[in-house]
Write a structure and sequence with these properties.
Elements: E1 17-21, H1 25-36, E2 40-45, E3 58-61, E4 74-77, H2 82-95, E5 98-101, E6 114-118, E7 121-125, H3 132-146, H4 150-167, H5 171-182
Parallel strand pairs: 1-2, 1-4, 2-3, 4-5
Antiparallel strand pairs: 6-7
Amino acid sequence: MPSNPLYPVFLNLAGRPVVVVGGGRVALRRARALARAGAVVTVVAPRFARGFEKLPVGRVDEPWRPSHLRGAAVAFAASDDASVNASVARVCRARGILVNVCDDAEGCDFHVPAAVRQGPVAVAVSTGGNAPSVGARLKREIRAMLRAGWADRAAAVGRRRRALKASGRSPASRRRELRALARGEGLR
C-alpha cells in the first residue's frame, strides 16, 4: 500500500448540507471555506468564536447531538473536545456520512488539503495528514507559479475546448489542438 493511500478528489458541495461541529477558530476556517464553496453550512456549538456572525451559515447554539447530522452530506468534527469529535466520527460512520476530524489524521475519512485557487485552476496538496507544514510550504510555491498566467491559460483553453466539442471535429484532432494550447502555442 502506498504511504499516502488517499484518493484525491474535488467535491462539489454547492447547495449540499454540511455540518461543522465546533465553534472555535478551526471550525471558523472550515465554515468559511465551505460557505465559499456554496455549501449549506450548519455549525453546532455551545459557543462561537468571533467571526461566525459574518458568515452565511446556520448556527445552532447548543451542545452537539446526533440529530444535528440529519441530512448531512459531509461533516467536520472541529470541536476543542476530543471526546466530542470522536462521538461525531462514530455517528457519521454509522450513518455513512464522510467525516473530517480536525487534528486526528487517523480519525478522518478525508483530509482537507492545502489548496491554491486562481481562476479556474485549483491545485491541492496532501501529505496524508502527516506534515501539514510541508503542504503549506508547497502551497506557497504553487501560488507563486500560478501567478505566471496559468489561470488565464486555463480559462482560454477551457473556452476553446467548449467550442471544439461543439465543432464536430474528431476527438484525436481536438486533443492535439488542446495539448498545443496548454503548451501556450496559439494563445493570444
